[in-house]
Design goal:
heterodimer; A: about 550 residues; MetI-like fold; two-stranded antiparallel sheet; two-stranded antiparallel ribbon; 22 helices; globular; B: about 325 residues; alpha+beta; Rossmann fold; OB fold (Dihydrolipoamide Acetyltransferase, E2P); six-stranded mixed sheet; five-stranded antiparallel sheet; 11 helices
Chain lengths: ~550, ~325
């Protein structure tokens, strides 16, 4: 009973925050759609779903996400192998470089791809600017890192000996891969694939900047319906569809991921020197690196050109409000806002994430406790599945008026961003905390250490680096967050992604150049944070 | 027949095996015995094709195996902890090699192999539900299913507890003889080596220091360190060795004594063996289920181990005389 009480006490703050800043807005948003005139109207829901455009949007979301997921897995597997099983010069650098796309601000990626693919751009001859193919490329660009990371982490710690035993029994390298390695990697592949699918299906910034209005996914359609067409029932209906789909996806992936015997022999075998037979994987990794570098290179190059000459003019313009006074404040001010907001979002996400992780990883002593824990686990992962747009708009409709008017509350945007980053923080910390053998704590306690002392001796040293890593991730996510922020940031207090989006929406080479320069600055900031985190060598975002 | 000629293997530039030469004749069981870290597992992995020798030649029936990948060697390797495929059932583990070769009647063969290792009816279980001994049996059945030209065993019993180890060692011995499988086993445990092998190869610090028939190596260890590793309790040298050997009419520069080589003569010369002039003060007395083990300080020799009859009630501080059993000692340095 006392343990249960302790559990509840620890969970109170995250539960409270999540209720006020997540459940309330989302319910408020859905309510607006389903109870348009104060009375429940499911027919409206049906009407929305039977619109031909909605069908197209859903189909578009499903097929682009599926294809992008498959491509990300296919491209990610060889790189995961090369970067986690082989030992070659510059391996660490390549590993870090391949992680960067995942945390680049979505708007920046959108701008970079347009720069790469637009008419006259380096890959303009492909003629796929603004097509679904460009959107697909953008989605893959983002998510290949997820596959490399989580499959790579599993692969890295995969014991070599079962494979050797199979080879000694006469299995060819290919047979070893299909009969031994792949089954062992299946949970990691399935979970990374489902997360990638999730990220693709709820992608907002990339689809909006590359696809515009022509190609809409469910997420951008929600945005369009709420901000442009004021069709709240339509937006609510799509939000519900999205939420249900995400819950279903998570359930299915949990089922597929289940293997006969989940205990995998973990060891960390020495990475081997590449052999001739590893050439295809190494080449594939190199090609991937080039593919991921291309849009960034195009972005950086173009940001340094003013009227066909190399110049820092666009960067100098960042201190202005752009041509025709497009912006209310200069980009430099927006950058300061962004950093301040990200700092706030980071500590909030970290505080909540730590509490949640501790609650989720304490060992359950009874079936009830276990059940409570798994419900909490699912609850805290919800922000992953709810569109940031829904969240942002929900904030607007529920927290923007009496009795809870938080529009001018300085932490409003940080809280929203923290909720978006929360699943990532939790997924970084939970495996680490769960990996601590409870007997270590018992040993400390039996030597006379109190609860606090035990935590200081056993938990803190192990968790310290992952916490810093999680903080870095939260910071990067918050810097680039666009979906919710686009609703919530006030015109006189914008963040950089909001400013970039505004700039590319306005004609004029000067404005576009400023958008490129701002994108580079934002990308560089995030990349720096992530490379610093990478130095910590934490298997971050390892397990979903 | 497996033959190794002057094989050396390095790990990251650190030599692990130096100039090893040995042969495993068809149908025989050869044990490589050595302390942990002596390079014996590396040697085994090289035979399996999992490590590449820096020099020397590993051959089968005269054909050089360099460049032949593991899966084409036809040598089944059984790991210390079995390395069963945890995602496959026992039957699928055992049938793994059969399925690779698309052999007919897999189910029947698997059932027969499981019967051979004493695990009938275990086919549907997952490795995670088995005990350590059962897992090793499954691993053995899986290796035998491949009908290997050579079976490689890496410390097959070390992961098991003492009682089980003894029982499984006997079973393993019988199964290997029955199947007639040529086998190379490496182990750090003398008992395991003695229980399984016909021939013994002793390794130390990456080098083979002695090899031969198991009884020969046992009776005539090549030097003091080998003797101690083979389970001899003490090695005496020089005058001390000469005095002990003189009792049984032998001579030599050094002698290795088993724990039972010296016995406390409580009854005097009536005990049978030649009356010796060895005697000293009992320092410690330790009772074991079979005998009383004592340590006796003999003037001019030092402390030696000896056995006492449980009936004698030997006590610390007592003066005793010691008899010598020639079959329980080995004269060193006379190879």
């Amino acid at each position: 009973m006392k343990r249960a009480a302790g559990l509840v006490a620890l969970a109170t703050l995250p539960l409270g925050v999540l209720t006020v800043f997540f459940v309330l807005p989302v319910v408020g948003m859905l309510g607006r759609g389903l109870w348009p005139d104060g009375s429940f109207d499911p027919a409206a829901l049906y009407d929305v779903l039977s619109r031909p455009r909605v069908g197209r949007v859903i189909w578009f979301t499903v097929w682009t996400s599926t294809v992008a997921t498959v491509v990300a897995v296919v491209l990610g597997l060889p790189a995961a192998y090369a970067l986690h099983r082989l030992d070659f010069p510059l391996r660490g650098v390549v590993r870090s470089a391949l992680l960067v796309p995942f945390v680049l601000p979505t708007v920046v990626v959108g701008v970079a791809f347009r720069q790469l693919l637009r008419e006259g751009g380096p890959l303009g001859f492909l003629g796929i600017d603004g097509t679904p193919w460009a959107i697909l490329a953008g989605l893959v660009f983002f998510n290949v890192a997820v596959v490399i990371r989580s499959v790579g982490a599993a692969w890295e710690s995969l014991d070599r000996r079962p494979g050797e035993a199979a080879a000694a029994l006469g299995a060819t390298p290919r047979q070893v891969f299909t009969s031994i390695t792949l089954p062992s990697l299946r949970p990691a592949i399935v979970s990374s694939a489902s997360v990638v699918f999730l990220f693709c299906a709820t992608a907002f910034g990339v689809v909006l900047t590359i696809g515009g209005v022509r190609y809409a996914s469910v997420e951008t359609e929600i945005y369009l319906l709420t901000t442009v067409l004021y069709d709240l029932p339509g937006a609510a209906a799509l939000s519900i569809v999205q939420l249900l789909a995400v819950v279903a996806l998570l359930a299915v992936s949990a089922r597929v991921r289940r293997v006969p015997d989940p205990t995998v022999q973990r060891a960390t075998p020495r990475p081997l020197r590449p052999r001739r037979s590893d050439a295809p994987q190494l080449i594939a990794t190199g090609v991937l690196l080039a593919l991921l570098a291309a849009p960034i290179a195009a972005l950086v190059a173009e940001s340094l050109r003013v009227e066909d000459r190399w110049s820092l003019g666009h960067y100098r313009n960042l201190a202005t409000t752009g041509g025709d006074g497009v912006l209310v404040v200069p980009v430099t001010t927006a950058l300061r806002n962004s950093l301040q907001t990200a700092l706030d979002a980071t500590w909030i996400a970290l505080l909540l994430g730590l509490l949640v992780s501790v609650v989720l990883t304490r060992r359950s002593r009874s079936a009830t406790e276990r059940r409570v824990r798994s419900v909490l686990d699912g609850f805290f992962m919800l922000p992953l599945g709810v569109s940031a747009v829904t969240l942002g708009f929900g904030f607007l409709v529920t927290l923007g008026r009496e009795p809870l008017d938080l529009r001018t509350w300085p932490l409003l945007v940080p809280v929203a961003q923290a909720l978006v980053a929360l699943p990532l923080v939790v997924r970084t910390l939970v495996p680490v905390l769960a990996g601590i053998d409870d007997r270590q704590r018992q040993a400390a306690a039996s030597l006379g250490a109190g609860a606090l002392r035990t935590a200081m001796t056993v938990d803190v040293p192990i968790v310290l680096r992952p916490v810093v890593a999680a903080a870095g991730f939260a910071f990067a996510v918050s810097l680039g967050e666009f979906g919710a922020t686009s609703f919530l940031s006030r015109a006189d207090h914008p963040t950089v992604p909001v400013v970039i989006f505004r700039l590319i929406g306005r004609p004029g080479e000067g404005n576009y150049g400023m958008a490129l320069a701002a994108s580079v600055v934002l990308a560089a900031t995030t990349a720096l944070v992530i490379l610093a985190v990478e130095r910590l060598r934490v298997p971050a975002m390892g397990s979903w | 027949m497996l033959s190794l000629e002057d094989v050396s293997i390095s790990y990251d530039g650190t030599p692990a095996v130096l100039g090893a030469s040995l042969e495993v004749p068809d149908g025989s069981v050869v044990a490589v015995l050595g302390p942990s870290g002596c390079g014996k597992s590396t040697l085994l992995r090289a035979v399996a094709g999992l490590e590449r020798p820096v020099s020397g030649r590993i051959g089968w029936d005269g054909a050089d195996l360099a460049g032949v990948p593991t899966h084409k060697r036809g040598f089944a390797l059984m790991f210390q902890d079995g390395q069963l495929f945890t995602h496959l059932t026992v039957a699928r583990n055992v049938g793994y090699a059969l399925r690779l070769r698309r052999v007919p009647d897999v189910a029947q063969r698997v059932e027969r192999l499981l019967a051979l290792v004493g695990l009938e009816g275990y086919g549907a279980r997952l490795p995670g539900t088995l005990s350590g001994g059962e897992r090793q049996r499954v691993a053995l059945a899986r290796s035998l299913a491949a009908e290997p030209r050579l079976l490689l065993l890496d410390e097959p019993l070390s992961a098991l507890d003492a009682g089980l180890r003894e029982r499984l060692a006997g079973d393993l011995h019988d199964i290997l003889r029955e199947a007639g499988t040529t086998t190379l086993v490496v182990t750090h445990d003398q008992e395991e080596a003695f229980a399984l092998a016909d021939r013994l190869v002793v390794m130390r610090d990456g080098r083979i220091v002695q090899q031969g028939d198991i009884a020969d190596v046992w009776a005539r260890p090549v030097d003091a360190q080998t003797a101690l590793f083979l389970g001899y309790a003490r090695v005496l040298e020089g005058a001390a060795a000469a005095r002990v050997l003189a009792v049984v009419g032998l001579d030599g520069g050094a002698v290795a004594l088993r724990r039972s080589a010296l016995t406390v003569d409580s009854e005097g010369p009536a005990g049978g063996g030649p009356r010796s002039d060895l005697g000293g003060t009992v320092r410690t007395v330790r009772a074991t289920p079979d005998a009383i083990r004592v340590v006796v300080a003999v003037p001019g020799i030092g402390e030696v181990d000896a056995l006492a009859s449980p009936a004698a009630r030997t006590a610390v501080g007592e003066q005793v005389s010691l008899g010598v059993d020639a079959s329980r000692l080995a004269v060193l340095g006379r190879s």
